[in-house]
Request: fold
Amino acid sequence: MNDDIHITPYIAAAVDDELRKIIVDNGKKVTLNKREFFLKQGTINSFVYVHSGLLGRIRDTPLEFKQTHLEIIPAGRVANFLNFFSPGKARISIQALRNSEIYLTPYKTVYAIMENDRRIAHEFEQMYGANMETALRSCYCNFIFSCESRLISLFRAMIRNYGIMPDGNGWMLLPYKLTREEYSQIIFSSLLTLDNILLQWKKEGVYKKAKEGSYIHQSLPLRSIAYAP
Reply:
């Protein structure tokens, strides 16, 4: 089954210093505590630059076969939350998975700057154009899948988004160094369920923890994705 997400924010993998300055200088600084909601079931028409921390974004889509997704937006990224595919209909919630500091800059402000400076406009276009592939496959999980499949799906996206390659023994180090609580929150599972999944994978030799973080074997992301019962 193809696990690619079709409705997603554009998340820039890297932000040029000049563009970051434009967003920060013209934006509103917002400090969020861990688990605090920045937005609950609404829409937002702004660029969001994550200066520090980690955000989670839940999107309920108004499709015939309802899909609910969660994407994670790490520090150093700019997320574009415009509802390109279903304006005004998707329900969006944004929550801080860690203590976070963000800058919120309205589209109108950024677009006005772009209209007055074609060079800046080109830089913004390049930023998102160059990252289109990673943006459309950002770190996410889909809640129509089982807990185990959601975790596999998230691992797939994390590896793909960062371009992580296996070492000589087939192991890949996951980014972000997420905690048990953060993984549990991201895939919406209990800690017990998460621990049982990871324990089983450890027994199978496809997951391990080390001082530098968590590793998965290259065979794990290749497993089939199953729908939730």
Q: What stands out?
A: The domain at 144-222 is CATH 1.10.10.10 (Arc Repressor Mutant, subunit A). DSSP finds seven helices and 13 strands in the chain.
